């Protein structure tokens, strides 16, 4: 079923599609199988210092997660509701990746990025998380479109964006740009 426009409820934005999205008062985004939870400063510190946490998948963090943790350390506003989030499996409670918005939006557009650890790929988590973050971003004041850039050498990521409702609008020799509008 296609993604419909965001709808407001007393609990925050709720989107009707095959993966229900709910926003709790703690800024978590919850889908059927995932919780997208804002990073905490303790999680950032643990990733940057190489400390293992028991609630991480065995292959978390990846190099991309370390880059995001460094970005958050340099940009504390990325800890907010419209910033970076960890992707958590509801069934296990394990952190399986990260997704987030690069706030604030410019010209009505906000960019997002994501990554799922190898042990959890092929389960549809990236698409489910992308749908949720896109729907959430479109509820924010001033956001008219959500965009993402993917390397052409990563066709699986391009499929994630397409399955999340984005369409390809431009490309160069190495990357393609996708948008919701």
From TrEMBL:
Residues 34-181 form the N-acetyltransferase domain. Residues 7-21 have a biased composition (Basic and acidic residues). Residues 1-26 are annotated as: Disordered. It holds the Pfam family Acetyltransf_3. GO terms for molecular function: protein N-terminal-serine acetyltransferase activity; protein-N-terminal-alanine acetyltransferase activity. InterPro entries: Acyl_CoA_acyltransferase (IPR016181), GNAT_dom (IPR000182), Ribosomal_N-acetyltransferase (IPR051908). One of its GO terms (cellular component) is cytoplasm. This is N-acetyltransferase. It comes from Actinomadura darangshiensis.
């Amino acid at each position: 079923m296609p993604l419909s426009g965001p709808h407001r409820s007393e609990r925050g934005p709720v989107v009707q599609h095959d993966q229900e999205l709910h926003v709790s008062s703690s800024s978590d985004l919850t889908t059927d199988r995932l919780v997208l939870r804002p990073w905490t400063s303790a999680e950032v510190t643990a990733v940057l210092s190489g400390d293992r946490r028991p609630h991480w998948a065995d292959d978390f963090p990846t190099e991309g997660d370390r880059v995001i943790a460094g970005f958050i350390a340099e940009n504390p506003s990325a800890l907010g509701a419209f910033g970076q989030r960890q992707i958590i499996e509801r069934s296990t409670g394990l952190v399986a990746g990260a997704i987030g918005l690069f706030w604030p939006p410019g010209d009505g557009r906000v960019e997002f990025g994501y990554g799922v650890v190898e042990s959890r790929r092929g389960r549809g988590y990236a698409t489910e998380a992308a749908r949720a973050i896109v729907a959430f971003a479109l509820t924010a004041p001033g956001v008219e479109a959500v965009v993402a850039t993917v390397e052409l050498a990563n066709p699986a990521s391009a499929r994630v964006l397409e399955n999340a409702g984005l369409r390809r609008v431009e490309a160069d020799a190495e990357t393609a740009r996708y948008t919701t509008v």
